[in-house]
């Protein structure tokens, strides 16, 4: 009996021990589960943040360049190959400066292959041209780099480049520093073009050639089989067209080319500024609105053509017209000075030089009343700004100005306004022969019409 009791007691003790172990194990499992849940929650939050930070944008026209440096097998013949590889790192810094100069993004750099993209994350019309410019400058700098390193008779490396233009999808992530992941068939084709390139050439697709052939010399290179779209013709960029270069080898652009490129950039600037004005101009500006700015831009071009100004002068004139009322987004009084400040802030982002910006600002200042223009461009913008005075739509246009001033309590009734207009038109003069020829006769007619409908004081 005692033995049986002892046996039961041992069993009870064993079960009690097992129970304590199970309770301890259960406690540990609960703690581990809590830790896992905490980690999962952190992961969930991180994924949500990353998703929130990540944007996916589509671009109808971007230009992709793949570049590969070849010739590393020749390093085995050199005395100190590691030193030469270290020197090559210096060239990558030179390349970064060129990329930044042409508003191009370095998307990836894997080994000796580099992927560049133009036209993202801000779309522009110039990315095919700027990518070719960057490729030519990289090629030139690479030759100079090796001349300094080895001498002109001995080059170890060559850099092959393939370029294609087309639609891409760009995934953008990161807050402090944005990172870009660019995908699409355009990327795949550009990579294949680079693989087909040889002997340090800049090879472009047929579509890219269509976009840049007005400025660059391109010669047929080969055909590239392309899935779904058939064979593609490839071309080698060999330099600028003679009319756009001042050196015998046609490797350096002249001022004519720079002006042509800037005129294309102007289209991007115009789109940017019109969007800004549409969003920011006060609604009570019935006259000094988006329509007026476009009216002045158009009339400035018409008068400018009539006066025979150059392409560069036209660029500066139209840019000034685009900005001349930008200060109205802040306030009407003294808006010309504010317009100048806005132009000085924005124009460097569109590659305008300090000299060009100074001229543009002087043209803007010339629109301040009473006008006192000094140069031909200043005279043209003054005439364009008040072009409506001698047009058939003078009455409806002047009524919008009256409404704008009247609602701000700056003018009384319509009769007071008409008397003010008669005085203003009588003292007004057009400064250019073109404006006088187009508008002066009708301006005098408007004065007589106003006198007929306006009672004496």
Given this structure, which CATH class of the largest domain is correct? Alpha Beta
Radius of gyration: 35 Å
Beta strands, count:
8
Q: H/E series, N to C?
A: HEHEEHEEHEHEEHHHHHHHHH
Category from helices, strands and their pairing: alpha+beta
Beta-strand portion reads: 15-25%
Taken from the alpha-carbon principal axes, the silhouette is flat
Q: Look at the structure and give the mean pLDDT.
A: 89
Task: Provide the number of structural domains.
Answer: 3
Classify the helix fraction into a percent range.
55-70%
Q: What is the number of helical segments per DSSP (H or I, 4+ residues)?
A: 14
Query: What does the main sheet amount to?
Result: 8 strands, mixed
Architecture per CATH nomenclature, i.e. the level-2 architecture of the largest domain: 2-Layer Sandwich
Would you give the CATH topology of the largest domain? Alpha-Beta Plaits
Give me the oligomer status. Answer: single chain
Distance between the termini: 136 Å
Poorly predicted parts: none
Provide the CATH superfamily of the largest domain: Nucleotide cyclase, GGDEF domain
Furnish the topology, listing elements before pairings:
Blueprint: H1 2-53, E1 55-70, H2 81-101, E2 104-110, E3 113-118, H3 127-150, E4 158-173, E5 179-183, H4 185-196, E6 202-205, H5 206-212, E7 216-224, E8 232-240, H6 255-280, H7 290-307, H8 311-323, H9 335-346, H10 354-365, H11 376-385, H12 394-407, H13 414-427, H14 433-453
Parallel strand pairs: 4-6
Antiparallel strand pairs: 1-3, 1-4, 2-3, 4-5, 6-8, 7-8
């Amino acid at each position: 009996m005692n033995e049986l009791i002892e046996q039961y007691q041992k069993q009870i003790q064993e079960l009690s021990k097992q129970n304590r172990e199970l309770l301890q194990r259960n406690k540990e499992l609960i703690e581990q589960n809590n830790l896992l849940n905490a980690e999962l929650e952190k992961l969930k939050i991180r994924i949500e943040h990353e998703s929130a930070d990540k944007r996916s944008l589509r671009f109808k026209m971007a230009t992709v360049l793949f570049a590969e440096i070849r010739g590393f097998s020749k390093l085995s013949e050199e005395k100190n190959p590691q030193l030469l590889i270290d020197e090559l790192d210096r060239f990558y810094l030179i390349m970064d400066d060129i990329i930044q100069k042409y508003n191009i993004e370095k998307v990836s750099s894997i080994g000796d292959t580099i992927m560049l993209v133009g036209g993202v994350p801000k779309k522009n019309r110039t990315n095919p041209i700027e990518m070719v410019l960057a490729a030519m400058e990289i090629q030139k700098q690479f030759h100079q780099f090796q001349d300094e390193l080895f001498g002109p008779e001995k080059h170890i490396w060559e850099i092959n480049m393939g370029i294609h233009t087309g639609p891409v999808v760009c995934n953008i992530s990161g807050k402090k520093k944005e990172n870009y992941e660019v995908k699409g068939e355009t990327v795949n084709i550009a990579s294949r073009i680079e693989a087909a390139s040889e002997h340090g050439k800049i090879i472009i697709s047929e579509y890219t050639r269509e976009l840049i052939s007005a400025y660059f010399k391109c010669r047929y290179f080969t055909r590239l089989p392309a899935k779904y779209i058939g064979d593609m013709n490839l071309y080698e960029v060999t330099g600028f067209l003679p009319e756009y270069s001042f050196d015998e080898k046609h490797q350096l652009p002249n001022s004519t080319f720079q002006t042509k490129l800037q005129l294309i950039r102007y289209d991007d600037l115009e789109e940017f500024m019109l969007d800004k004005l549409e969003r920011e101009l006060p609604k009570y500006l019935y006259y000094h609105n988006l329509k007026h700015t476009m009216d002045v831009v158009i009339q400035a071009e018409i008068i400018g053509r009539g006066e025979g100004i150059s392409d560069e002068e036209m660029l500066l004139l139209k840019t000034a017209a685009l900005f001349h009322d930008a200060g109205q987004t802040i306030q009407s009084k003294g808006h010309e000075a504010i317009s100048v400040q806005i132009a000085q802030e924005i124009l460097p982002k569109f590659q305008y030089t300090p000299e060009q910006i100074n001229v543009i600002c002087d043209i803007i200042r010339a629109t301040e009343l009473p006008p006192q223009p000094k140069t031909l461009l200043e005279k043209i913008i003054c005439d364009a700004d008040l072009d409506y005075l001698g047009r058939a739509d003078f009455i409806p246009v002047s009524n919008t100005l009256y409404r704008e001033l009247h609602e701000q309590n700056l003018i009384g009734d319509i009769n007071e306004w008409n008397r003010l207009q008669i005085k203003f038109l009588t003292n007004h003069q057009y400064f250019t022969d073109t404006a006088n020829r187009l508008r002066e006769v009708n301006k005098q007619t408007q004065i007589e019409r106003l006198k007929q409908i306006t009672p004496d004081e």
